[in-house]
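User: Working on a comparison across species. This one is VRR-NUC domain protein from Bacteroides clarus YIT 12056. Can you predict its structure so I can line it up against the others?
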Amino acid sequence: MRKKQTTPQSESQIQHSCLTWFRHQYPSLSRMLFAVPNGGKRDARTGAQMKYEGVLRGVADLILLIPKKGFASLCIEMKTPKGQQREEQIEWQREAEKYRNKYVICRSLQDFMNEVNSYLR
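Assistant: Here's the predicted structure for VRR-NUC domain protein from Bacteroides clarus YIT 12056:
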């Protein structure tokens, strides 16, 4: 019998799974983890409006706004297993870390669970 091939999860699907897990695992903290709307395709007008309002290229996908273990927050960049950071993301990571924010890259729900549990416990 052949194994059924599965389509790899998109970054968006991984992120959704992570948020769903977090909200069930840490319901009292659910408002402190939020997505940053800095990705995706938009028309030029919407992109210009978002830039005007302060959206920055490279900002992490998720921010857990809880100080722990000497860090100001946990910044989480979501990637697929083969995804790579863009230069703007690397630059933003350096800046975030300079100001005592922990920055991690998560490529799966398991990565996310490990990082969040380690950070919060």
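For your comparison, note: Residues 5 and 81 are 16 Å apart (CA to CA).

User: Helpful, thanks.
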